[in-house]
Structure formats: structure tokens, C-alpha cells
Amino acid sequence: MNIKELDIKLTGIDEDGIEKEYNIKDFINKTTILYFFPKDNTSGCTQEACDFRENKNRWTSKAQVVGVSPDSIKSHKSFKEKQNLNFILLSDPEHILSEAFGAWGEKSMYGKKYMGIIRSTFLIDENGEVVKEWKKVKVKGHVEEVLEAL
Questions:
Q1: 3-149 carries CATH number 3.30.559.30
Q2: Are 77 and 67 in contact (CB under 8 A)?
Q3: Which residues are known to be catalytic?
Q4: HSE-CB of 136 using CA atoms within 13 angstroms
Q5: CB-based contact 41:82 (threshold 8 Å)
Q6: pTM of the model
Q7: Is the predicted pLDDT of residue 109 greater than 90, yes or no?
Q8: What would the mean pLDDT of 76-102 be, rounded to a whole number?
Q9: Exposed/middle/buried for 115, CB within 10 Å: 0-12, 13-18, 19+?
């Protein structure tokens, strides 16, 4: 998959918490770690976000990190402030980008099936090509795996 083929625009907040509209094509020309997570301020999602935050010195010269969830901009701003996050967060309430990357699908909890974000990460090169992907991610140790691949 190449993100040059996608024409998807989402609202997000930048590294400084400023709200703006992004086109997925905006992430061409710099290696991007695009990760999809289910929900702001939940234990696994907070751990994953904080792992990216705490390792910024290891990725910042090589790539940019972009987190995506269905949460609202208001929720993302609160999450960013509470956890002092230092990367872009995109709001995908209609799961358009999530579906394009196969990160939206059927899940199961306590025997009940529902649709939601399948925790996934994609390493995208500066030409927009997905060069590595992680599906059904387990949070513990995941950021380390991504950084090793980077």
C-alpha cells in the first residue's frame, strides 16, 4: 500500500496541541510511524502513547509518530495534555483511515462481538510506501519492536 493513493483528510492536533486538518498525503517525504489505538485515556492506549513519548529521542531524527483513534479532538487534547504527548494525534470518528489500513474490524470482549479499532502500527517510508506492519499489537514491548525496525 502507498499513501499517495489515498485522499483522506482528518482533523488532528499537532505536537504543540494546535488543531488542524491533515491529509494523509501530508506524511509523505518523512518516514512515519502511523499507529491506531482504540481509546484515549485507557490503560493500554496510555501505556503505548507514553512509550512513544518516552522514546522520542530515539525516533525524532528518523521519523514522525502519528496516533489515530476514533476519539474527538476534545478528547485528544485532554489525553495529550494529561500525558504530555509530543506527537500528532488524528481523530478518525468515521474510521475512514482505520478502514483503509485494515485497522477497523470485528473484536470480541467477554463473548460479545463489536466493531472497533484493531491496535495496529504501520511503518511508512518517505515515499509513502508501507514497509512494515504490526497487526493485533500487544502493548508491552511494542514500541521497542517498532524502533528496532526503524
A1: no
A2: no
A3: 45
A4: 4
A5: yes
A6: 0.93
A7: no
A8: 96
A9: exposed
Which residue in 109, 90, 98, 110 sits closest to 135, CA to CA? Answer: 98
Report which residue type is found at 125: D
Q: Which three cell numbers stand for residue 7?
A: 485522499
Question: At a CB cut-off of 8 Å and minimum separation 6, what does 54 contact?
Answer: none
pLDDT at 77: 96
Q: Does residue 1 have a pLDDT over 90?
A: no
Nearest-angstrom CA–CA distance, 30 and 127:
8
User: What average pLDDT is seen over the chain?
Assistant: 94
Q: Tell me how far CA of residue 29 lies from CA of 36, 42, 127, in angstroms.
A: 21, 32, 6
| Inter-residue contact 65 to 52 (CB < 8 Å) | yes
Domain boundaries, the chain: 3-149
Q: What's the grid cell of residue 99?
A: 478502514
Q: Write down the residue that cell numbers 524502533 correspond to.
A: 147
